[in-house]
Amino acid sequence: MAQIINGKEVSQSVRDKIRRKCEELVGKTGLRPGLAVILVGEDPASQIYVRNKKKACEEVGFLSREYRLGGETSEEELLELIDSLNADPRIHGILVQLPVPKHIDDKKVIARIDPKKDVDAFSFENVGRIMTGEFDFVPCTPAGIMELLAAYDIDPAGKHAVVIGRSNIVGKPMAMLLLHKNATVTICHSRTQNLKEICRQADILVAAVGKARFVTEDMVKEGAVVIDVGMNRDEKGLCGDVDFDAVEKKASFITPVPGGVGPMTITLLLQNTLTSARKAANIK
Ligand code: GUN
After folding, report:
1. Whose Cα sits closest to atom 4 in ligand 1?
2. What angle (nearest 5°) sits at the alpha carbon of residue 178, between those of residues 172 and 181?
3. Which atom of ligand 1 is found nearest the CA of 140?
4. What is the C-alpha separation between 103 and 72, in angstroms, rounded?
5. Contact (Cβ atoms closer than 8 angstroms) between residue 128 and residue 134
6. From CA 181, how far away is CA 80, in angstroms rounded?
């Protein structure tokens, strides 16, 4: 029976540390970390994410600004808002919640955010830094997973880590962070042949597929560490990419959904905003 990785607990202890560091920064320099979150349109899931980000900011003592723009907002208007936030010394992190409506080019939007304030780490500059290992901003979801592994003394060095999913937000940066920690990494995706056999070789299996209960018990090696990035809805409600009830019996560690990876993503966003504010205040 697997040990459950408690993302809520780890997240709370990291957020406590961030709150203390925020107070310290304000006390020393008068500078309060500030995050601006922009939401364009009325996507219900995005509205929940944005609300949670704002709440988390306030809990650790950050300045939080929320911009809710109508679905008809033009690309130019959004770019102008980003320009004004780039120039605002009270704002250290700018996040445009994705997806944006179809008439807006998300690549253009990401490229417009000052890389020093790109707390999602989505810009070419920050992605490049993640490749080389010289990064200040961590990619939030993958970095949250690395924190979870560390909290449970799971060292990826020398292990075979298999990542299912090759998105720019999760799969690719996840593979890089595991590689930086000396894992042997395989990235699987929709065109992978022999997916089951490859997954069965994994010491650490990360599922970022976006399909409910995609990872079944027969895809998991006895004693593997199983990390579930999925956030799906089915007839039973919220569920991950892993068939939790069956896989739990085989894995050594497993993250639940909810309460596993999810809470860590926002925590690492706070971490990046703090890092940015400390840099702005010339504190290492
Ligand atoms: N939409 C889903 N995940 C994310 C994320 O990590 N950052 C942003 N900006 N939008 C998202």
Report:
1. 98
2. 145
3. 6
4. 9
5. no
6. 39
Q: What is the mean pLDDT of each run of 10 residues along the chain (284 residues)?
A: 98 98 98 98 93 97 98 98 98 97 98 98 98 97 98 98 98 98 98 98 98 98 98 90 98 98 97 98 89
Q: What are the tens digits of pLDDT across the range 254-284? A: 999 999 999 999 999 999 999 999 999 998 7
| φ, ψ dihedrals at 206, nearest 5° | -110, 120
**0.90 exceeded by the pTM?**
yes
129 CB-contact burial (10 Å; exposed 0-12 / middle 13-18 / buried 19+): middle
95 CA to middle of ligand 1, Å?
8
- Alpha-carbon torsion, ordered 118, 122, 126, 128, to 10 deg: -170
Pocket of ligand 1 (CB under 6 A): 95-98, 120, 140, 169
CA of 160 to the centre of ligand 1 (A): 28
What six digits make up the tokens of 167? 């998105």
Task: Name the residue among 283, 228, 273 with its Cα closest to residue 121.
Answer: 273
Helices 124-132, 171-180: axis angle to 10 degrees equals: 30
**Residue 53 a catalytic site member:** yes
| 97 CA from centroid of ligand 1 (Å) | 5
Instruction: Convert the pLDDT of each residue in 216-258 to its tens digit.
Output: 999 999 999 999 999 998 888 899 999 999 999 999 999 999 9
Of 192, 199, 185, which is closest to residue 146 (Cα–Cα)?
185
Domains annotated on the chain, with CATH:
30-114 (3.40.50.10860), 140-262 (3.40.50.720)
